Amino acid sequence: MRTGFLLAAALAVLTACASPTPVETAGPATAEPTDAASCRAAGGDWHPVGLMQELACEMPYPDAGKVCTDNDQCAGQCWAEDVSPFEAAGQKGSGRCQPTNMPFGCHSDVVAGIVQPGLCVD
Q1: What are the pLDDT digits (tens) for 47-101?
Q2: How far is CA 107 from the centre of its chain?
Q3: Are 99 and 77 in contact (CB under 8 A)?
């Protein structure tokens, strides 16, 4: 039983850590910086992140905080606001575009105007 739970939790974390689909832009997609110097040069913040405190580049999204009703409207995800990530699933709602590329914390995406079940990522 415990092994099944651990496998499910690991799968949820790996799925949540996958890079979001980039928003189509006029120029070519750029790779995320992988060292402190290139991170800072790109406008990011190089620091320990997540439960494992691994060094990573936290980059702000260009549409951070924009009101949204679907993930397709954001460079990252459309995170529901002013609701509990675990009590509002299935309700109509809107959100705001994810502020940075870091997925950490508890959030509910909004897809087609409907709040999705919450997910916590460490």
Answers
A1: 999 999 999 999 999 999 999 999 999 999 999 998 887 888 999 999 999 999 9
A2: 8
A3: no
Q: Would you list the DSSP string of the chain?
A: -HHHHHHHHHHHHHHHHSPPPPPP-SS---PPP-SHHHHHHTT-EEEEETTTTEEEEE-B-TTTT-EESSGGGSSS-EEE-SS-TTT-TTSB--EEE-SBS---EEE-BEETTEEPPPEEE-
Q: In the numeric block, which tokens belong to residue 23?
A: 């928003």
Q: Are strands 105-107 and 119-121 parallel, antiparallel or unpaired?
A: antiparallel
In total, the chain counts a number of residues equal to 122
Strand-pairing partners, residue 102, are none
Query: Which amino acid is it at 51?
Result: L
Among 70, 122, 121, 75, residue whose Cα is nearest residue 98: 75
